[in-house]
Amino acid sequence: MNSNRTFLWLTLLLLFFSSMFFAQGLERRIDSLILKEFNDPKGPGGVFTVTQKGKTLYQKAFGKANLELDVNLNPENVFQIGSMTKQFTAVAILMLEQQGKLNVNDPISKYIKDYPNGDKITIHHLLTHTSGIKDFTKMKSISTIAQKDMKPEMMVDFFKNEPVDFAPGEKFDYNNSGYVLLGYLIELVSGDTYENFIKNNIFDKAGMIHSYYATDRKIIPKRAYGYHKKEYGYVNKTAISFSVPFSSGSLMSTAEDMLKWQNALNKNILLNSQETKKAFQKYKLNNGEEFTYGYGWHLKDINGISTREHGGSIFGFKSMGVYIPSKDIYVIGFSNCDCHSPTEIIRNIAKLALENTKRN
């Protein structure tokens, strides 16, 4: 009897140390990936988090949140997330569809009467980057409005009369103008501002208390400051008006809040299962060719396992998130210098996290 107890005790002890060994091994391997790029402790850096089934597997910050004040980054810092904003815009549209206030197959002329070719371009085309509308970020005249306060209608007027790049549904071509149009539609249909709609219907419901519509004027607790890198060193980020990227790239958040966002989607707190499915399915072009984008997410894979991904880039900041539904693994990375991209690092960390699930 005593020998059985001893065997059981030794087995449990072995499992404990084995688990601890793999956890430490995972941490070292993730550290190694990150430090290849984020290797200046006196410069701006990044925050990285890995969770599985709600359990934190890894969470660290590297570098400085503010160079002038010599303040270190920590996992609670607030970053501008750039185009990861598109996830929130897409879900807001689906929330309005769920409420019966619009349909993703509606032509945009139903809401904006004078939009060129608006009877051929649908909300679906905007959501999937298949509208053919000119991307305003590729227009040379963008510099003339970059620091102006632009109402959504003014932003739409800025690009709406540009020649289209292709007929709606002919191609997938990543497009910021489409998501600005979606933000304008959210305002027209809801009767509220985009900022208020996102806060009241998404941030508040998901418990995202450290997420905001971006601002350089308001006091944002634990804000990470953004930087560029020049030959002679780091400089403060270029100032822009956040009314320009608007609903295509003007939100701020934390790693913890982004996990709350992911959990809210998983638990159908924001959308029912039918509407949620629309965000995460692949669609086809007019010729029947399937492309790898849903509504606000790239739909890819890592070693044959399906992922939902999106990155973001805005002056002074870069971001990347990868979610693996089958394993409930979420990997998120933020940088407060646009000289550092977390994109490949996050995908490689996700690969390590998948390997870790096979060992445990």
TrEMBL record:
<dbReference type="Pfam" id="PF00144">
    <property type="entry name" value="Beta-lactamase"/>
</dbReference>
<dbReference type="InterPro" id="IPR012338">
    <property type="entry name" value="Beta-lactam/transpept-like"/>
</dbReference>
<feature type="domain" description="Beta-lactamase-related">
    <location>
        <begin position="41"/>
        <end position="339"/>
    </location>
</feature>
<protein>
    <submittedName>
        <fullName>Beta-lactamase family protein</fullName>
    </submittedName>
</protein>
<dbReference type="InterPro" id="IPR050491">
    <property type="entry name" value="AmpC-like"/>
</dbReference>
<dbReference type="InterPro" id="IPR001466">
    <property type="entry name" value="Beta-lactam-related"/>
</dbReference>
